[in-house]
Amino acid sequence: MSTAFATEPLRIVAVSAGLSRPSSTRLLAERLAGAARERLTAEQDRAVEVRMIDLRDLAVDIANHLVTGFPPSTLDEAIKEVTEADGLIAVSPVFTASYSGLFKSFFDLIDNTALTGKPVVIAATGGTARHSLVLEHAMRPLFAYLRATVVPTSVYAASEDWGSSGDEYTDGLPSRIRRAGGELATMITGGRAASGASRVLGLDDEVVPFEQQLADLRLD
Q1: For the chain, what is the mean pLDDT?
Q2: How far from 52 is each of 16, 95, 108, 148, 212, CA to CA, in Å?
Q3: Residue 182 in contact with residue 121, Cβ under 8 Å?
Q4: Distance separating alpha carbons of residues 88 and 90, to the nearest angstrom
Q5: 129-185: per-residue pLDDT in tens?
Q6: DSSP string covering 92-116, please?
Q7: Is 146 left (phi over 0), alpha (psi -120 to 50) or beta?
Q8: Fold designation for 3-219
Q9: What is the percentage of the chain residues whose pLDDT exceeds 90?
Q10: Measured between alpha carbons, how far is residue 198 from residues 51, 133, 175, 193 in Å?
Q11: For 147, which DSSP code?
Q12: What are the angstrom distances between the C-alpha of 17 and each of 35, 38, 53, 82, 188?
């Protein structure tokens, strides 16, 4: 391993689709990023950089890119930071029982192979716990399509979750944030070695055409 690689900062990018200021969506993104950075700093002799991306500030650029096909420089830089991050945190408010249109529009602009294997924490905020399944029926499938690796713990924060310590059946919001951040940190440090090994072994290039797979089944 080269010295440059060993000393290169780990980069976490947190994308928030919150529209208001102050925003509980932005706050949840910050706390998740802080939990991941805390775990990485404790376990790795590496600097950790966190970049927050507020989609609210890029809304007009996103709309223009969808219409023209040409991203303004600020949006292009945000997309580059997301695709080159070691770990990604994606947080959306719930609108009409799903992620927001702004959130979806931003990730529509990212090539569907650009996040392949990237560790991702998905999270959402809403006024009521009834919308918590948005994480599983909307956000997890979205990032599965983008070929990202979503950590097991997703985090939903309803209004009543802020300041709550949970109960005997459900962990409080701080516990869920720490667990999700820890899983992201573990996946970031493990993911680097795994991806490097696959490149050495040439596993990324080993693609079997679907027709051949069918033919092999018929031979059996």
Answers
A1: 85
A2: 7, 22, 19, 19, 44
A3: no
A4: 6
A5: 888 899 999 999 999 999 999 999 999 999 888 876 555 446 789 999 999 999 999
A6: EEEETTEE-HHHHHHHHTS-TTTTT
A7: alpha
A8: Rossmann fold (3.40.50)
A9: 66
A10: 28, 34, 34, 9
A11: T
A12: 20, 23, 9, 14, 23
For residue 173, the Cα-to-chain-centroid distance in whole angstroms is 18
Model-wide pTM > 0.85:
no
Residue of 171, 165, 157 lying closest to 26 (CA atoms): 157
Lookup: tokens for 162: 């802020």
Q: Give dist(CA 28, CA 125) in Å, integer.
A: 8
Cα separation, 61 vs 90, whole angstroms: 19
For the chain, the domains span: 3-219
Write the burial class of residue 150 (CB in 10 Å: 0-12 exposed, 13-18 middle, 19+ buried).
buried
Phi-psi region of 6 (alpha: psi -120 to 50; beta: other; left: phi over 0): alpha
Q: Are 66 and 105 in contact (CB under 8 A)?
A: yes
| Residue among 108, 117, 90 nearest 14 (CA) | 90
Dihedral sign, CA of 17, 20, 21, 25? negative
pLDDT confidence of residue 170? 61
Structure tokens at 4: 């440059």
Q: Is 180 helix (H, G, I), strand (E, B) or coil?
A: helix
Burial class (CB in 10 A: 0-12, 13-18, 19+), 211: exposed
